[in-house]
Amino acid sequence: MTLEFDHVNCIYDAETNQPVKALSDVSLTIGGGEFIGLIGHTGSGKSTLMQHANGLLKPTGGRILADGTDIWSRDYDRRSLRARVGLVFQYPEHQLFETDVLTDVCFGPKNLGKSAKDAEALAKEALEQVGIDKSQFALSPFELSGGQKRRVAIAGVLSMQPEILILDEPTAGLDPRGRKEILSLVKRLHREKGITVVLVSHSMEDVARFADRILVMDHGALLLNESPASIFSRRETLQQIGLNIPETLLLLDELRRAGLGTDDPAMPLTPEDTAEVILSWLQ
Amino acid sequence: MASIKDITLGQYYPTESVIHRLDPRVKLVVTLGYILSLFLITTVPGYLLAALFLILWTGLSRVPLRFMLRGMKAVFLLLVLTIVFNLFLTPGEVLFRFWKLSVTREGLRTASLMATRLVFLIVGSSVMTFTTTPNHLTDGMESLMHPLKRLHFPVHEIAMMMSIALRFIPILMEETDKIMKAQMARGADFESGGIIRRAKNLVPLLVPLFISAFRRANDLAIAMEARCYRGGAGRTKMKPLIYQTRDLVAYGLLLLYLVLSVVIGRDLLHLQNLLTGVLAWRI
Amino acid sequence: MSLIETKGVQHRYARRDEEGNIIQTTMALQKITCEIRAGEFIAILGHNGSGKSTLAKHLNALLLPSEGAVLIDGMDTRDDENLWHIRQLAGMVFQNPDNQIIGQIVEEDVGFGPENLGVPTGEILSRVDEALAKVDMQSRRYSSPSKLSGGQKQRVSIAGVLAMKPKILILDEPTAMLDPAGRAEVLATAHELNRRDGITVLLITHDMDEAAGADRILVMDRGHLVMSGTPREIFARSEELTAIGLTIPTVTQIAEILRAHGITIVKTPLTRQELTEALTAYAFALHNN
Predict the structure, then answer these.
(1) Which of A12, B160, B183, C231 has the fewest CB atoms below 10 angstroms from its CB?
(2) What is the ipTM, given to two decimal places?
(3) Rounded to two decimals, what is the model's pTM?
(4) A-contacting chains (≥3 CB pairs under 8 Å)
(5) Domains observed in chain C
């Protein structure tokens, strides 16, 4: 499916003397099986944008179209939209509530009106996809480790079979191993299921390696909407709005300044690729 | 969703005014005194006196009238019910009939007096919350209740509990909003269905909320211990309450008002009876 | 004398069933022995569940060792008489800023510690002034904590500890919930307090780049203290670190790959600048041969 934001505005507290413009004239298209990174610092509007995508928030101006239909038109079924545009919030603690893992993951499909049997089948499939072992199905979700809770939370949304999967900061608070595991899980889901993935993060490093396209938000506006390579050629803009630049790129910049590099626009993001560039420069 | 944001408990209106600068204990005593006077007063001149006091009290606070009236919205229904019940259900001399209901002279009188009393009461006591930060209010209560400590009443503990509750209410409100959205993203429905269904639907909201509240409580307890909190004994105050001249003036004015409201506000004949009664009892 | 000393500290967590019978015991800390000198900046590194937070909570007597002893400035944490003095000396800042700020305005929160210690009113105010100045938050003195960014909230929490005049500042994953700007803010504050005011800092983290700035790193794994050394010594042992679920800073990783390809890098680099210098030297030597 395709989701289109058409000049979307969102103003909080409009009636008070301090209105907050959370989204300002945002136009963009999401869909087509892309892997999209959504970057911005805290308060840049990325969370607000995300909550507009599945109709949790209503724009104060502009339209949001799902396959061409305005999701705020009368009689539009926004509940089934929420199944098609799956949204995983940052803290799994905000959604886990059942006594065991499997029942919790069934919650979404059951809400969609699936029978207990179908819901369970969908839940099992989703849990398998996120790498939760059968032996853990009967555990209380509260006994799991941080990384496992996140997997179960993702499965809770996956079980509704979304066509677009939006993940808000799925690695926040995890240790390096946990981060790596969740990121490769997201990458695998994108590849295997062919769904559109939007990864929301304030870390460039997390997003840059996987994304086909990166959206950069600042002060409620969509500042950039381009490929990673083209985003990274604007390092100064990124730094101005307080985003971190991948360490690898900063290193190459420094080597260039020291006269060790050439002007070739290589933009390696992994240590291996970076070492390769440096080796080619040194020869 | 907007409803959660609308609930504000501490409705402090920050500005500079004499009332804002008054000692919280004074404001508490004045508010209690004013409420007391409203129950004492029965005559029209008495109500005029109460109105005068209210105009002075609100005027000096420099809180815009529309903020004061906003507080009335919540009790509007109560106000209407009070008027309707008193208007139609008071027996007495019939003024006119309306369908099957009759309006009596006594009913009209009681309804208007009750309504005035209610409005005065709410506006009068809202001045206190508009001009005093919740923390000052707790400080004031703690200090006023201090004599109760001798009776082993846990004054400090109650004040501490109140200020912690006040601190965490906005945080938990925000959290409720987040959990609600996370569950709605999984197709949860908090809006439709009968009362039992609705109550059942709240489980996915309440379980994560309680777990989070307990975790926060535990974290906070550890953090307080780490900062050497060990109850009220031996504690000092950063900003102890000290009466200023203006506070004493306010107490004086309150006393004057209370005396006047007894003299003007009570039926003098009634008062005389009361006095004779007391005297007779003394003798 | 060292400011902090742990001698064979063990900590057992008991899990109990509903009747209170112990069903499982876990050793969260296993014979931890270490010494920390006054003025050091220490990073305690480890993955989630490695015991690093449990260790931290032993240093201000929030937890007591099941076996062994913890001495803070020579005082044993198991001795009840020392409890409040130890907690005043070793202040602690936790991960979630919202769960540790008690006051409804910034200054109130900073004053909470001194109030508990029974400091006279006049002095509390001057301590609050001083503490807020040290973390550069004077301008938000009368703000409500809810109006602050994550980084600012953590700086307020640090000020709350500073107002108790501690010698030790224990930061238990203070940046885990912050964005990059907030992280940088909190780290800069910690380093500044260490350098300018001589406060001993213990930073608990799983972020390698944060640990790289410390004087010394202690690495924890499954309740054991497995490594202790300067960042350069620690990050040279990348295989061992990877095995316990930790990584090394990106620059150090790149340097390792380059070394494997025969590039001479004498000193393990921790920063971009160090690697640039090493490579400049290498290129220079290459050119002269």
Answers:
(1) A12
(2) 0.89
(3) 0.85
(4) B, C
(5) 4-230 (3.40.50.300)
